[in-house]
Amino acid sequence: MSQLGAPPAFTWEVQANNRAHHEQLRKKSAFCLSKKKYAGNAIKTAKYNALTFLPLNLYEQFHRMANIYFVFVILLQTFPEISTLPWYTLLFPLSCLLTIRALRDLMDDIGRHQSDRNINSRPCEILSGESFRWQKWRDVCVGDIVRLHKDSLVPADMLLLCSSEPSSLCYVETSDIDGETNLKFRQALLVTHQELTSEESLAAFDGKVTCEEPNSRMHSFTGVLQWRGETHALDGERILLRGCKLRNTDTCYGLVIYAGFDSKIMRNCGKIKRKKTKLDRMMDRLVVIIFLVLLATSLCLAIASGFWAKMFQEKHSYLAALYKHTTPAKQAFFSFWGFTILLSVIIPMSMYITFEFIYLVNSFFINWDLEMYYAVKDIPAKARSTSLNDQLGQVEYIFSDKTGTLTQNIMSFKKCCVNGTIYGKFWCCHGEKMLDSNNVGLREAVQQNNDPVLREFLRLLALCHTVMVEERGDQLVYQAASPDEEALVLAARSLGYVFLSRTQDTITISEMGVKRTYQVLAMLDFNSDRKRMSVLVRDPQGTIRLYTKGADTVILERLRGRGPNQDFTERALDHFAEETLRTLCLASKELSEAEYDEWSRRHRMANILLQGRACELDRLYEEMEQDLELLGVTAIEDKLQEGVPETIQLLKLGNIKVWVLTGDKQETAMNVGYACKLLTDDMEILEEKEVSPGVRFQPCVLSPKDTILQTGEVLQKKGRLWQQLACHGTTDPQEQGSLVEKAFVDLATSCQAVICCRVTPKQKALIVQLVKKHKKATTLAIGDGANDVNMIKTADIGVGISGLEGVQAVQCSDYALAQFCYLQRLLLVHGRWGYLRICKFLRYFFYKTFAGLMTQIWFAFHSGFTAQPLYEGWFLALYNVFYTAYPVLSVGLLEQDVSAKKSLWFPELYTIGQQDKLFNYRIFSVTLLHGVSTSLTSFYIALWAFEDHVGSRTVGDYESFSVTVATSALLSVLVEIILDTKFWTALSFLMVTASLLLFCLFSFLTQSIDAFRIAPAVFRFPGQVPQIPAVRSSQSPKICWKARRELEPSVELRTHVPRGSFHRRSSYAFSHQEGYAGLITRGESLRTKGTHSTTKGTHSITKGTKDTHSSTKGTNNTTKGTHSTTTHTHGMLQSHSLGRTDHANNHVVTRSPFFILIFVIKSPPGHTHRHRGE
Description:
- It is a single chain.
- The chain is of the alpha+beta class.
- It has six domains: 51-121; 130-269, Calcium-transporting ATPase, cytoplasmic transduction domain A (Distorted Sandwich), CATH 2.70.150; 297-346; 347-365 and 828-1022, no CATH class; 382-405 and 641-693 and 731-817, Rossmann fold; 413-435 and 442-639, Calcium-transporting ATPase, cytoplasmic domain N, CATH 3.40.1110.
- 41% of the residues lie in helices and 18% in strands.
- The chain is built from 39 helices and 38 strands.
- The strands form eight sheets. The protein has a nine-stranded mixed sheet with strand order 16-35-34-33-17-29-32-31-30, sandwiched between helices. A nine-stranded antiparallel sheet has the order 19-18-28-27-26-25-24-23-22, sandwiched between helices.
- Residues 1088-1131 are annotated as: Disordered.
C-alpha cells in the first residue's frame, strides 16, 4: 500500500492499547471549561438522579401554568388580613397533585435507570496487558481491544481486526439497530488478518486510526489505519457498530473507535422530551386567560367596594371613630385580594387530580383490550404513557418505518421471465415448493440444458450476491444481507445451481451437480444512486464475465442494444409491477484481459483515496457496467404484516396521512407502497427530480391523489430543490434553510402519500420535526428498531412494534403494539373515545364550576361588595370533591357516542378530533356563558322567591337562601350532565345517585345543631339555630383585631339619666330626621319576634344570661341614622342581629349585613356595669 496522509478534517485519532494517551486529551466545553475528548462507554438515558430529581421534576411540573396559579393562591392565603381559608388546606391538594405526577415520572425514570444499569453491566473481554479479562461494558475505553464471541453484542463502535472465520469475515445481525434480522458481513483488512493471529500480537499492536469525528451517519465511515509505516483505507465494511449481534462467527477482535455517546447509534438517539398534548397547551393558555379575567373581576368589585365604603362613611359620619385606621382605598385593596381568593376556586385543583385518574384508567382500557392482544407471541397492547390518550384522537400524520413495521421482512420468489417465457410462482425464501403448472416447464428446461440464456440467468443468481453460507450437518444455511438475495439464491438452488461457499476472492457453486469455483475479481456494491450491484468473476476456463442485477430503469438503459425479447420482457415487467411484485433485471457481459487490467489498475488507485473515494468508484463502476446483454427479470413478493392494507385504507378514510420513512432503496419502497395500498394506480408519482423544478414556479398545483417520493439527500440540502430556492435572491443561509424546509413541507403535505427513501435515523426525526414546525399538526411515529428511536421521541406520539426486533423502540415509545394493524383500533376507537371523554370532562367541569360558584359575584352586589362567601365553607370544600365530581368522572371514564364497531365502520368520525371541534376557545366561551346564565338563574330566582313582597323587600333568612341557591345550582348541573350523557351504564346511574345522596347527607351533618354544639368553630352554619348573622364582612376580622389591640373606647356614649329610671329617649328624638313615621307605617322598623328594646338606665345593654354566648335582647331598632339593624339602606338582605357582650372590655358587638359594629362602652368612674335581671 502506498503511504497516505490524513486530511486536516480527520481529527479523531485512536491509538491502539494506549489508554493514557486518550485520557489526557481534552476539548473545550461550556463556560470556558474542558472535558475529556473521548467519552467513556457507560451510557445514561435516565433524566434524574438522587440529587436532581426533586428540583428538576418540580421545574418541569411548574411549566404548567395551573401549578403556578395554585402556588400564587396559596401565597395569598398566608396573609391573615385577606385569607378566607387556612393556607394548608390548599397546599395539601396541590402537594397530592405534584406527588402523583412526580411518582409517575419517577417510576418511568427508574425503568430507564434499570435499563442503563443492565446495559452498562454487560460482560465483555478487554485486553489488559497480554491477556483478556472479563470486565463490564462501562469499563471499555477508546483504543481498547475487545474480544467477542458468538451471539454476543458489540459494546462500542469497533474496527474489526480479525476473526476466526476464513479471511476474517464476520457476520452480524442488526435487528436492534434497524429491525432487520438478515445477516450482514464485515471483513477485516488483509494485513491485520494475517499479522494479528495471537494474544501476544494483539497486545503488541500499536496501529493508529485517523478518521472522522463522531457523527450520526450510520452507513458510512471514512478513515485510515497507519501501522508499520503503511496506510490502509478504512470504510464502513470494516466497522462493527454498537448494538450489533455477532452471528455464525465463533470469535472476533476489534479496536474501539467510538465509545458510549460517541457511538453512531447513540448519536441517533434523540433526547427524552416531555410531551404535552394540544389540550394541555390549551389549558395552560386558558388558565392565564381565566386568571386575567378573575383579576379584572376582582378589581371591578374592589373598586365598587371602595366607593360603597366611602359613601357609607360620608352618610354615617358619627361612626368616623370606627374607621379612623382605615380608608375606602385601603378597604378596596383588601377587598381586591379577598375577591381574588374567593373566586380562585373557578380553577379547581380537583380537576387536575381527576385528570390524572381519567388518563390512568383509560390507559388500563388500552392494556385490557383483547382485540389488540397478539396471541401468537402472547403480546398485549401496552400504554407506556398515561398522559397522551386524548391526543390519540387528534393524529393528522403517521410516520412509519417499513421493514418490520409494515412488512414481515420475508420474501417469496413468485415469477420470472427468461428469454421470452414467463414462469409462475414458486419457491419462497424458506425453500418451500409451491406447485404450479409452469414450474414443470422451467424445471424441464433447466434439466435439458439447451438454453444458454437460461444457464447464464441461473448462474447469475448463484454468483451475484453477498450471501454467506454455513454448513450445519448436511444442510447449507444461507445468511443474507437482504431477504431479496436470500430468495434469489434459494430459487437458484432449487433449480440445480447451488451456492456452496465463498472466500475473500473466490466463490464456489454447484451447477447441475458439477462443482465449479469462480475467482472474484471485483464486487461493485449496491448503493441508492446506482440501484444495482455487479460481480466481476473469472470462470474455470479463464473467461472474465460481469454479472449485474438491478432496477429496470438503470439496467435497460445500459444494454448494448434492443434484443429480440426486450419488448416482451418490458411488458412482463409492467405485468409484475401491476401485481405489486418487486422486480429486478439481470444482465451480463464478457470482458477481455486488456480491458480488465486497465480498469483494475484504476480501481486499486481509487480504493485508497481518502477524499472523493466514493465518487471515483462510482465513475469506474459506471464505466464498467455498459454494453450489457439482458438475461431476464425476476419478481419477488415482500410479505406484509397481516391487515396492513386494510389499516392504511381506514386511516386514510379518517383523514390521516401516512408517510413511509425507510432506509431502503426507492424501488423497494415503491413496491411496498403499492402492496399496502398506500400508492394506487390512479396516483401520479413525483420523484425528486420531477419535484424540484415545479416548486420554484407552482408549488401548490398537486392534486389530492399525487404522491411524492423523496430521498434523504433533500434533507441534507444537496438536491435540486435547494438549488432552485437558492435562486430566489436570499443570501442568508438561515433564511434559505427555512425556505427549503417550508417548500418541502408544503409540497409534501399537499400530496396524498409520501415515501422517503434512504433516510438516516436522524433524517427521520428531522422530517417529523419539519411537519410539526410548519404545519402545527399532531404527529405519530411508529417503528420497531433502534433506527426509529429518534423519530419516536420527536413525534407527538411514539408507538413501538414489540416484535422480536423492537426492544429499543418499545423502551422509548409511548405505546407498544404487536402488529401495525392494531393501530386502527388504537386511534379510531381508543383515541377518539379518549378525546371525546376528556373534552366532555373539561366542558362539564368548567360548566359546573361556573354555574355553582359564579353566584359569589352576584352576591357581592347585595352584600356591600364585600368578599363575604354566599355559601358555607363546607359546601365550597365539598362541591368539587363529592357533590359534582362523580357524574363528571363517569363521563370522563365511560362516555361513548358510538360503539367500537361503528367507530371502525365509519372512520370519518375521527376528523372531529383533528379539527378540535369538541373543545376549543369557542366551546369554552359557550360553556362560560352557559355557566354564567345558570348561576344568574339560580341566584335571582331564589332571591325573588325569598323577598318579602308584603312588607320590606328584603330577604328574611340568609341561611335558607344560601342553601336554596346551592341546591338549585347543583340540580342544574346534574340535570345538564344527565341530559347530555349518551352512554349510560350502571356506574353512571350510581354516580349521579351518589352525588345527590352525598349532598343531602353532608348538608344535614354540617348544618345540624349537634355538630354546632360539638365544634362551633368548625360548623358555623347550623341549620337549627334560628338567629344567624346575615353577612359577615371581609373587614370584620381586621376590625375586631384592631379593636382588641386598642384599650381606649371607639365610641363613648354619655347619659344623664340614672340607671333604673323609667325615662327612655324617644325614638323620634333619637332619629333626628324626618321620615321616621314612614318607616313605621311601612313596618320596616317593627321589631321581629323574639327581640325587643332593652335599653334601661344610662346605657343600651344586652340582657344577660348565664351563658356568655346568649342571644341579644338589646336594642335592635332599625333607623336611618344608625344602621344598627340588619336592614341594608338599599333594601337588600335582612336577618336577625346577634349581639354579644364582652365583660372584660365592655364590648357590645352587633353584626350587620355589611360589617360588625363594635361599641366600647365607657362606664362613669366608680359605676358598676350590670345586666338587667342580675
